[in-house]
Known about the structure:
There is one protein chain. Helix content is 50%, strand content 24%. The longest helix is centred in the middle third of the chain and has 27 residues, at 56-82. Helix 2 (12-30) runs antiparallel to helix 3. It is elongated and about 65 Å long. It is α+β, with helices and mostly antiparallel strands. It has a 5-stranded mixed barrel with strand order 1-2-3-5-4. The protein has helices spanning 2-10, 12-30, 36-51, 56-82, 93-97, and strands at residues 101-109, 112-117, 120-126, 136-143, 146-151.
Amino acid sequence: xxxxxxxxxxxxxxxxxxxxxxxxxxxxxxxxxxxxxxxxxxxxxxxxxxxxxxxxxxxxxxxxxxxxxxxxxxxxxxxxxxxxxxxxxxxxxxxxxxxxxxxxxxxxxxxxxxxxxxxxxxxxxxxxxxxxxxxxxxxxxxxxxxxxxxxx
Length: 152
């Protein structure tokens, strides 16, 4: 732990910026919607460190934790206000997909293909007609990581 504190003493801005970028990259790769607010919080702490506000490692870590908790809780309230019919859990994205229009990214073969909806590409299955890439479909249900779609 002392090595981390010493590294922080040399370049606090870059440590927090690197943490924020790493969290944001993981969020972009996994689309969990849970790591966005910690990434933003790390960015805010990086700015505080760059401005030169003397907090030390433990003060900045405490600020990061407090900002992460506060921003996550506030985001849950915001999502509940914006989408009152949806689950307030920001991580329950699959339930919000039902009824949304998706675009086919890989043509369906034997009832299976891939679609793009809500900022992510998903494996999908369809009964009947096999839409081609670029066509539009509607999400009917979610089964694990696979969407069931219909022509639309």
